[in-house]
Design brief:
Elements lengths: L1 E5 L3 H5 L15 E6 L7 E3 L2 E3 L1 H13 L2 E6 L2 H10 L3 E7 L9 E16 L15 E5 L4 H4 L7 E5 L2 H9 L5 E5 H10 L7 E16 L5 H17 L1 H8 L35 E5 L1
Parallel strand pairs: 2-5, 2-6, 8-9, 8-10
Antiparallel strand pairs: 1-5, 1-12, 3-4, 6-11, 7-10, 7-11
Helix pairs in contact: 2-7
Length: about 280
């Protein structure tokens, strides 16, 4: 595991700026975030956390006068820790029926197609789907097996992260990878693979990627975060952040105007932002 402590907006705290919450009293905020190596949304580059959602939440912390700590784990462990808490944020978490009651859902940040990726020489099904008898690689901790009908009854093997899945593909341990299109493609770039070496097949499903939290996170904490992100939507920083991380419109259309829906948190609508200067101290563990 590696840990990065974000001191976003620390100067605001040192200046003793008072943050008034809905009850009218001041409270300093510190957020603990759990994530995995999931580019382009959240990952480490030379020991420094980066990505669309990292920049988003760091800016939210800066604007709120809060401190932020991000910890990276293998995704299966990250999901378990995010559910267990205490008072823990997690992203990017697909909102699926299986997970619905296990987390508090704060903000939808992106919606993503889940696709089939295979080596160019692999023959996919006629519709671009999974070929018969294929060994399918997915990231451990995902709920895809439960939530994508095309995987029902298939032989599915788990990898620690998407880089691990590409190694499994190289070593002929699996035949195809199933995952979010942006993450699969960004992982391919990380290992300097040419796009022409692979083919992207059919879309098997579409899920929203959320900022979620353990269910013990207070509504007050969530409201601070949500209000900061809504302001970012209004001032256009979300659009700039998408461009910075080369994310397309595949998915933002139905995520910008809604919030936690069925969760117990504040039902206000969010927005989304870009990177901001922050002091970062990273140390491996």
């Amino acid at each position: 595991m590696s840990r990065a402590v974000f001191l976003c907006g620390l100067w605001l705290v040192l200046a003793s700026q008072i943050l008034f919450l809905s009850e009218g009293r001041a409270e300093e905020t510190s957020w603990r975030v759990i994530s995995g190596q999931l580019p382009p949304f959240s990952y480490e580059d030379k020991g420094r956390p980066t990505g669309f959602m990292v920049d988003l939440i760091c800016e939210a912390a800066r604007r709120s006068g809060a401190t932020l700590k991000i910890e990276y784990y293998p995704w299966a462990r990250a999901v378990a820790m995010g559910e267990a808490g205490p008072e823990t944020l997690i992203f990017p978490l697909a909102r699926t029926p299986y997970r619905e009651g296990r987390f508090s859902w704060i903000l939808p940040l992106y919606a993503q197609r889940y696709v089939v990726l295979a080596p160019r020489a692999t023959k996919l099904a006629a519709d671009g789907g999974i070929p018969p008898h294929a060994r399918i690689g997915v990231i451990r901790g995902t709920t895809l097996i439960k939530d994508i009908p095309a995987l029902a009854g298939k032989r599915v093997l788990g990898g620690r992260d998407y880089l691990n899945l590409f190694r499994m593909l190289d070593e002929n341990m699996i035949d195809v990878i199933v995952g979010p299109a942006s993450i699969v493609q960004a992982s391919m770039k990380q290992i300097d693979r040419a796009a022409g070496d692979y083919r992207i097949g059919a879309t098997l499903g579409r899920f929203e990627l959320w900022l979620a939290a353990s269910r013990d996170l207070s509504a007050q904490q969530a409201a601070v975060l949500e209000e900061a992100v809504r302001a970012m939507q209004r001032d256009g920083t979300y659009e700039r952040l998408l461009r910075r991380h080369e994310l397309d419109d595949d998915a933002r259309s139905d995520t910008q105007l809604r919030s936690g829906g069925g969760s117990r948190l504040s039902p206000r609508s969010p927005g989304l932002p870009p990177p901001s200067p922050s002091a970062v101290t990273a140390s491996p563990e």
